[in-house]
Amino acid sequence: MTNPNAEQATILIFGASGDLTARKLLPALYHLWQDGYLTESSPIIGIARREKTDDSFREETRQTILGADAAKTEEWQHFAQQLFYRELDLTAAGDYERMTSQVAEIEEQLGSRGKRIVYLATAPSLFYPSVEGLAAGGMIPNRDSNEILRVVLEKPFGHDLSSSRELSNNLGRILSEDQIYRIDHYLGKETVQNMLLFRYGNAIFEPLLNRNHVDHVQITVAESQGMERGRGGYYDQSGAIRDVLQNHVLQLLCLVAMEPPAMFRADAIRDEKLKVLKALRMCEGAGMSDCFVAGQYESGTQNGERVRGYRDEERIPADSRTETYVALKAEVDNWRWAGVPFYLRTGKRLPHRVTEVAIQFKLPPLNLFNTIECEGDICEIVNARPNTLIFRIQPKEAITLMMSTKRPGMQYQIHPVAMDFMYEEAFERRLPEAYERLLLDVLRGDSTLFTRSDELEAAWEFVTPLLNYQSLPTSQPEIYAAGSWGPRAADEMLRRASHCWRQPHAR
Ligand code: BG6
To answer: How many angstroms separate the CA atoms of 313 and 307, rounded?
Structure first.
């Protein structure tokens, strides 16, 4: 029976020999197909320069998705019939016409028409040449036609504000904004979307999320990995500010800080996110080093194993100054949040992979229950701990509310406890991968979870002073040991404000 939710389109993946295509895109499309979201008349065409046949592309894809030993199931055979591969040098504008007719032939064979999705899983330097090629090959529909073309771009969208602007302007000459889908895969994560639902689908929390009740907010995107899979070449040009802060971390900040949109529509939500980015400030009046710390990992011990330092990683120059960690203190300078610090941090080779947004509330105004607790000869005064609301984005998706309770006994002894909602336990189903959700949204034409050009520009504007500061000859990232929580200066930055970083566990 045909699934009424199934989408029909021709999907072209430029950069089909790359890591992203193999690890994320093709598995996501396969799952969408399995779950009935993609019709059987939707060809998926891998496009790249390497020589390959449809059969070898199908076999490679089978191995990545099902594993080398898996049997060729009937289901797989079925799906494989929708996979195709065509060779193209993306920089050769003259070759796109040939590609267009090859695509049309495949469409004819499968009965696909009217909608094409082009996913640019390529190096950013190929974004514009590819779009120019699409124009040269006659793939851009006339504005008054019913045909649909959507072009999906992977980050990085530029290297800084001016290159991002230039790219937007160039693309804007050929494509309209509603044809461009800029992916930030964090927005496809189920728990990131749940931040919106949690805030606007419940009545009791939203009234508390403001300067009257919130002491500060901490956003952590910690990764245990270093420069695996030959990423060093890209990463050394990028660094933590461009790679994760400018996009994923700022997007999380927008979702926790934005005002409720008037309706749940792409532009209404993106308008609100934009306002947050525009209200974002750092260290008004203070020096940059008071509210910004950059670090780089050296060798250390992680999960009991010795790992090498950044400068010893493959394709990293021995004198690299690229930051593998950043932490900063920002403020959303608006009526709701003025004066509330937002502490943001991200880094490689931290103790474990964990992403969370933690909202720490103010303490009760009066300490009625401070008690003295002793263990042997050591006694301490235990006061109320602040309530904290934690959105754990990964790995064990959860929402936790920390609160104080009375420890059973004859005295009033205060004890912090956690109220946990764990996705895994509450829903007995696999959480869809970010790319599944985002690809389905592109097929449906829903751009809510994609970054608009003005948002992108505002995010670049915010990080520009950090990039400038980082590039000063006097700015050296502070060294931290792999497997630690980052440079000491990051702890000091919070200590100066009488705060301290959470040490989130990966349970
Ligand atoms: C990517 C960055 O955008 O996000 C990587 O380029 C990073 O460096 C990755 O590792 C993190 O994504 P996730 O989904 O694993 O948290």
So the answer is: 10
